[in-house]
Design brief:
Helix Hairpins, disordered C terminus, Rossmann fold, Rad50/SbcC-type AAA domain-containing protein, extended, 2 domains, coiled coil, about 600 residues, 13 helices, P-loop_NTPase, alpha/beta
């Protein structure tokens, strides 16, 4: 989910409102002095989504509502929430004319999580009762408020879910919860889903294999075919515009003949390879049949020996039992091999027929092109031109067909990779539940390892001193710096470390392709605890993340001023105030934002 636009509406003619505040695709900066109203604006982003915010009395009195437009998977939603003691959010979807109204955080949370594709699985409270995640429990992973947000890696308004931080991280990563209240039902559903995904994977593998074999496109890439198409279309256009069309047509015909001859050579080589393969299959089949005959002779010999009382006097003596079992197994195995060979031979024979048909078609095309170069002199100009245009057109159609097949194969392969990732996730979920509350899910281990490395990188970006780089991340995603916990830090060290943790998590989250939340919001950090150059390096690094991903950064600042680049926007306080410009003000015919 990305942020699109924010607007605060005034209460009455003398109330306070804002202009349309459009979010940047990368970095949105609020730069202004203390008291300019940056924090109420920042708060309003989370407030519009249902997050609990305590505003000062003047905001509650002067502002009527806030509207926030967001985009998720190319759909646009507008959330409008009233500045009132009563919970009231109206959500309108651009694709639908109907609006929905929500009267408590639980309802809006269920709606949002459903829209964002987040799990609706019941969790467990600290009192061992069922509950569900709320916006107020999930959003603090991506929203750092000015008051308490810089004191820990996760600071929600309340904590009522068992191991709440770990559960919210798991929720964001799409990993099974640690304390699910519906574990048994979840496990059954995941196993059923895994079975279906496995079937889809097998079918997709077979479909891709058949597409590749039947299309016979070799090592050609989409870009390579596009280059060929561009060249052919250029030649066709040149022929139409050329003053010396006859010579150009002859040149095009000669080049096309060479291309067709090269294609014929490759096709003939493929035919020879297929014939050799079919011959090899038949040879192997004959050898297997000889081995089957040998086994049958051995079995006949065994039966003959077993009929001699001198060798096996007692009834059912069992002397040749193992030999008989071995014969049965070997015979079954060899016959299965013959069936596989017959299937492969039939498939290769079908391909051989297709190749031979294509070879004949190529021969006809080459003959036709060559004949157009040897026409009588009086007809050569028109005939050559028409033949060249016709041949170019056929080549363009042929290349376009190959391009369509290649694009289909690439699309199927992309879907195949997604299926593999989905299977990996399902296997991790099942492993987590079958193994209890432990971290049997390989995704958790991978995330912890990557998170540890990213924390070190961000600590270095922020020039964080006196903090050990010997970092450990436990199964609940708590971080240990050598022998120290985050709670042992204070002042500048604590601020820098919190910023490093938040940025590391966000970078990793975005790089994993998670799209539920695609923004990170920093309300003004205490800048007397961090040097301007270090904070500048921090923002510059965040900018590099935005440029390579669908990611947004929103931050407010008093001292450090970021020079906006392409993809960035700066929101400035543009309403007149008693002592300084303000972000909120009276909007009427006499006073508009400058």
């Amino acid at each position: 989910m990305k942020l699109v636009k924010l607007k605060i509406h005034p209460s009455g003619k003398t109330g306070w409102g804002s202009k349309d505040l459009v979010f940047a695709s990368d970095i949105t900066q609020l730069y202004g002095p203390n008291g300019a109203g940056k924090t109420p604006v920042i708060h309003s982003i989370a407030f519009a989504l249902g997050y609990p915010v305590r505003y000062r009395d003047d905001i509650m009195a002067k502002c009527s509502s806030v509207s926030l437009t967001v985009e998720h998977e190319e759909e646009f939603f507008t959330f409008e929430r009233s500045f009132s003691d009563k919970f009231h959010i109206e959500v309108s979807e651009k694709a639908s004319k109907e609006a929905r109204i929500f009267y408590n955080e639980q309802e809006i949370s269920e709606y949002l999580f459903s829209r964002l594709g987040l799990s609706s699985l019941a969790l467990t409270t600290n009192k061992n009762e069922p509950t569900y995640p709320y916006i107020s429990t999930f959003l603090p992973l991506f929203y750092i408020d000015q008051d308490a947000g810089y004191t820990s890696a996760y600071r929600p308004p309340g904590s009522f879910i068992k191991d709440q931080y770990a559960e919210m991280v798991r929720l964001g990563l799409g990993i099974a919860p640690k304390h699910s209240f519906e574990a048994k039902r979840f496990l059954i559903e995941k196993k059923r889903e895994l079975d279906l995904v496995n079937i889809q994977i097998v079918n997709t593998e077979e479909f891709i294999r058949k597409l590749e074999e039947q299309s016979d496109i070799g090592n050609i890439s989409v870009s390579g075919i596009e280059d060929e198409l561009e060249q052919l279309r250029g030649e066709l256009e040149d022929l139409r515009n050329s003053f010396d069309a006859t010579n150009d047509a002859d040149y095009v015909l000669q080049r096309l003949i060479r291309e067709k001859q090269n294609e014929r050579l490759n096709l003939a080589a493929s035919i020879k390879n297929l014939e050799s393969r079919i011959s090899g299959f038949n040879k192997i089949k004959k050898e297997i049949e000889i081995e089957i005959n040998t086994l049958s002779l051995n079995e006949e010999s065994r039966r003959l020996f077993s009929s001699f009382k001198e060798i096996c006097a007692a009834p059912g003596c069992g002397l040749f039992t193992s030999s008989s079992d071995s014969y049965g197994k070997n015979l079954l195995y060899l016959r299965d091999q013959i069936k596989d060979l017959d299937r492969n031979t039939k498939f290769q024979e079908i391909r051989l027929d297709e190749y031979i048909s294509r070879l004949r078609k190529l021969d006809d095309e080459i003959t036709s092109l060559e004949s157009n170069l040897t026409k009588e002199e009086e007809n050569s100009q028109t005939t050559s031109l028409i033949a060249a245009i016709s041949a170019l057109t056929r080549s363009i159609i042929d290349r376009q067909g190959k391009k369509d097949v290649l694009e289909r194969i690439e699309s199927e392969k992309h879907g195949y990779v997604q299926l593999l990732n989905k299977r990996k996730g399902l296997q991790g979920d099942i492993s987590s539940f079958e193994g209890g509350a432990g971290s049997g899910d390989i995704r958790i281990l991978e995330f912890r390892n990557s998170y540890r490395k990213k924390i070190v990188e961000w600590l270095d970006v922020l020039s964080t001193k006196n903090v050990s780089r010997d970092i450990a991340v436990d199964s609940d995603f708590n971080v240990l710096f050598g022998a120290e916990k985050l709670s042992q830090f204070s002042g500048s060290t604590l601020l820098r470390t919190v910023l490093a943790l938040r940025a590391a998590f966000f970078e990793l989250f975005i790089s994993m392709g998670r799209t539920s939340i695609e923004f990170l919001i920093f309300d003004t950090p205490r800048q007397h605890d961090i040097e301007t150059k270090d904070f500048a390096a921090f923002i510059t690094k965040l900018k590099s993340i935005c440029k390579g991903n669908r990611a947004q950064i929103v931050f407010s600042t008093t001292e450090y001023h970021y020079n906006a680049a392409e993809g960035d926007i700066e929101w400035k306080p543009e309403f007149s105030g008693f002592e300084q410009p303000m972000y909120l003000g009276v909007i009427d015919n006499n006073q508009t934002p400058s």
